[in-house]
Write a structure and sequence with these properties.
mainly alpha
Length: 114
């Protein structure tokens, strides 16, 4: 039952992540616009250029606010990634040899020493 719930949760998270690809791309582009305009705003000395860069930065910031649903997609991708990493580490640890699995072999070694 636990495996079924984990697989169902992974499918739901994958659907959320895939449906949020558009807003994630829009958020990335808006973040680049805001970053670039802020960088140019601080570098320029002209008042007119500062006003233009500030307006462009506000347009980019409004794009960031419009793409807030992308945060759900980013969270879904992060949860999928950490779940996959945890699943792989559990799979690797279960593949390690159990120290009690070779009990008979070790017992025979000990009896041979007597």
């Amino acid at each position: 039952m636990k495996q079924f719930l984990l697989i169902t949760a992974a499918i739901v998270l994958a659907i959320i992540a895939l449906s949020s690809i558009g807003p994630m791309i829009g958020m990335a582009i808006s973040a680049l616009i805001v970053y670039y305009s802020l960088k140019k705003f601080t570098a320029t000395n002209s008042t007119g250029a500062k006003v233009c860069w500030a307006i462009l930065g506000l347009i980019g910031f409004s794009g960031l606010l419009a793409n807030l649903p992308a945060l759900a997609g980013i969270a879904a991708v992060y949860i999928l990634y950490t779940g996959y990493k945890h699943w792989k580490s559990d799979e690797m640890s279960s593949k390690q040899e159990d120290p009690f699995a070779g009990f008979d072999k070790e017992w025979k070694k000990l009896q041979g020493l007597k």
